[in-house]
């Protein structure tokens, strides 16, 4: 796993005929071998200290901030979405999620047949409903902290159901629960608390629970406890190594570009395992407290709840691995911007500054008139993220690296 991660960081010039991406950032590790060995001890020590230090109101405030932020986000219509500076990056991220979801659903269908049951934790406004429809699942539980957001999600589902009423295949059934996945016991809120789930998905949200060990454990328990053995817990999160690497390279605690900004609020020399807080601002999309998810701790917590890490891969590497197999999908989803643009179309980024990588690429190929790419600024954001997948261990299975 680590070797693979190391390898993927030292690229990158994409020589695919359809696409090319800017050079990715090199990372500075902030975990040492020693740190890794001591993770268990650190987690426990940290947990005791943090529990004494942090009052409930401090935790409560951050959760309220997050809920308020997402409740206030406007439901943008397609025309204004089409004008967005980050249109292609959003589509690209959606493509990543689609591929991650379909890869795992397909594996599950091979073993368990077609009636797949899914929990979408922190589902937002239901941005993945169409993906669940395309995967032809049987049942979906949607949960989110923000009540207005949840209502949007439910409305969207009802709309989908109405439009699907004449379709050949019936739409999956669904239930909707407003709850805090880092504090509430989700199973108790399910219509059927004894439900056995095949897949749990948590997209762009798991990092909210790393505020404290208590919250991370609650989230992990929620993700794992209803999963059947062999089921998957999948998701997307910012890669803490990359965030910290960029932070270490900048003066002060603030870095970014014209579309994103990160500001850290903790000790730069030794970020804590939990509660390593930063604000992530992205073109009006996210602007609330988030927390570093330190992979070795994430992995250890998962072991405690019977989940074994199967995949942790940054978006750039995942894209490289999956692009050929899912080429028509990325074109259909408009996950890349055409360069050079068509005569009546403007590039979303700065034509001089944001496309040097594409320009260079075009100079070295003679048989391509156009390629698909992302602007440098968008690439700097999306390459911060990683996909993950855990598998629920089968009873009696000895977990790999249990004692590391
Ligand atoms: C970036 S959005 C992602 C939404 C969706 N998963 C997607 O990929 O489109 C993060 C979502 O996580 C939700 N969230 C944040 N903290 C949460 C918590 N503690 N419990 C439940 N939902 C939470 C927010 O309300 C928001 O809808």
Automatic annotation (TrEMBL):
Gene3D superfamilies: Vaccinia Virus protein VP39 (3.40.50.150). It is found in: Nucleus. Pfam families: mRNA_G-N7_MeTrfase (PF03291). Its EC number is 2.1.1.56. It catalyses: a 5'-end (5'-triphosphoguanosine)-ribonucleoside in mRNA + S-adenosyl-L-methionine = a 5'-end (N(7)-methyl 5'-triphosphoguanosine)-ribonucleoside in mRNA + S-adenosyl-L-homocysteine. Belongs to the class I-like SAM-binding methyltransferase superfamily. mRNA cap 0 methyltransferase family. It comes from the Eukaryota. Residues 1-54 are annotated as: Disordered. The keyword Protein transport does not apply. This is mRNA cap guanine-N(7) methyltransferase. Residues 84-393 form the MRNA cap 0 methyltransferase domain.
